[in-house]
Amino acid sequence: MSAAQQDGSAQRREPAVLVETDEALVERGSNEREPLIRRSSRPKVNQSNPPGLLVLIGPALLAGIIVKAFDIAFLSTSYSRIANIPPIASELKHFKDASWIQLTASICSAIFVPSYSYLLTSFGMRRMMFVAYGAFAFGTALCAMSTTFVQLLCSRFVLGLGSSGITLLSMIIINDIVGFKQLAIWESFVTCVEMATSMTAGPLGAWMNRRFTWHSVFYLELALILLGLCILCASFAKISSYPEYSDSILLKEGNSKLPRIDIEGWLLLLLAVTVPLIALTLADNFFDWTHPTEMCLLVAGPILICVFVLFETRAATNPIMNMAPIFKPQYLRVLFQVFGVILILNSIVFIIPPYIQVRAFKVDSFEDWALTCVFLGFPAGAVFGGYLVKTGHIPVQRIMLTNAVLLQFFCLLFFTRIIKPESEKHAPFLVAFGICTGIWQSCLLFATLSSTGKQWWPQTLALYYLVETFGGDLGMALMATITRAVAKAVIRSSLGESEATEKIIIDAMKDLETVGRLDERSAKVVLASFENAMHSSFFLPCGMAFGVILLAGGMNIWPPMSNYEELQPEESECGHESDATAGSIP
């Protein structure tokens, strides 16, 4: 036997306990087969996450996902009514500011979603999961006890702290367990659970809102999230009892060292997210569009976003987000599509409830079920999109381009009033719109992760959800601003400039129910003004959909399945799968 062969035999006979140096770990960092959370040196034989791990942690993840989906669906259906319920919560007469009930939690979610990926290495998955669930439970309790509009907004901010962690950590766990190839399918399964919850939450929450109070809905959410916390405790206790899971990402405690807090970065992120939304809220509400303060705020928004990116890239010693992948043109195109699609979806979902409320004022309508139809189509689209992505029969860029054209088609149907969401006869259109947006979700998540290496995936997911949240918030704020400005202008032109007209405007902006106390002519004018204003705001999603078509047409995504094989586990000489996707469910 030659010396080389003897060497090879000796190496194969060595035990599979390898201690890697720091240099070796750094060198392996670019390998896309690495797990999302880099593990310390340890025996190689127990590194995998068997499929059973998802069965153990799955109920806890689903509990958090269900409660979050319930909260979002209830507010999407009833936020405009929460802001003007008489006489139970007369302090909440803020119809014109009702969007902030949703925006506050979303702003907090956008700000803190990077913190979970930032602190994950230091404190481990288990601690961060309990922080997310605990913050959501505490925020829900505060919402249930709120008696004023300001108290409710502050409570929603606390709730958003937990909401951001539930989403991000759930996706990191699922991706680490099942692997990249299965991610689209499992993500669509999560979407099905979310949408099934949303279809129940909309009508149930609206009924509880009318039958009892909106507080009762938050008490129900509190009970559900506390149940989720109990399931989470039981899941981790069960996982800890199995020796084969000792090296799982779920039980990794982290180094317990608090990283240096990048205060400047957090402050810039807070300003970059909130200043544009505040500017849109103040416009034509407290300041004229031409007021110096308003103009400064409008200009400062985009500047602060650019400053945040440059600071994190060039100046931050401990950046809260690694911005290296963001300068790749391919990744930027994907992020802009994420921004555009979620802006379109949230714009339409946001405007449908008040649009129906105005069009069917004091008349039985399809209001409680309109968004349920959208939520019904969304999981079907997500599953179909996940299947197309997984099989690779159709190139991803072709799916995205076709779907962009369909999205533009639906936006035009809303804009031309062909789709009437207050009528049950148009429910199929709403379901089809949900299917279209569901397909987008699967494609965009795949495109986002495929455009960066796996070592960047925690940061990539954090940035993905940050852009998604900010795009959704901006869409809601723009729709509210356009509606408010156009409605005021139309009412003034129809009823004339007078103190009486201004009082009608102020009362209607606070509480739409006051329209019922006006004379017949004035009531018709006010309702028609709001309807036309909301209808005119549909030009925003139409214009954004055209931009998405251009971006999708310019995409040059990888050939279908071209990088799947590169990310799949290879069998070693000992027959073990690599860490990245060990335990994938075929």
Describe the structure.
With 586 residues, the chain is mainly alpha-helical. The chain has three domains: 49-242, MFS general substrate transporter like domains (Growth Hormone, Chain: A, Up-down Bundle), CATH 1.20.1250; 260-317; 321-557, Growth Hormone, Chain: A. The protein has helices at residues 3-13, 22-28, 52-82, 99-145, 149-178, 180-211, 214-240, 263-282, 292-315, 329-359, 367-391, 396-415, 427-450, 457-495, 499-510, 520-536, 539-553, 564-567. Helix 3 (52-82) crosses helix 10 (329-359). The longest helix is centred in the first third of the chain and has 47 residues, at 99-145.
Quaternary state of this entry equals single chain
How many domains, as an integer? Answer: 3
Question: Which term fits the overall shape?
Answer: globular
Number of strands: 0
Overall residue-averaged pLDDT value = 73
Q: Which blocks of ≥5 consecutive residues have pLDDT under 50?
A: 1-51, 79-92, 558-586
Q: Give the number of helices.
A: 18
The SS-based structural class is mainly alpha
Beta content comes to under 5%
CATH topology value of the largest domain? Growth Hormone, Chain: A
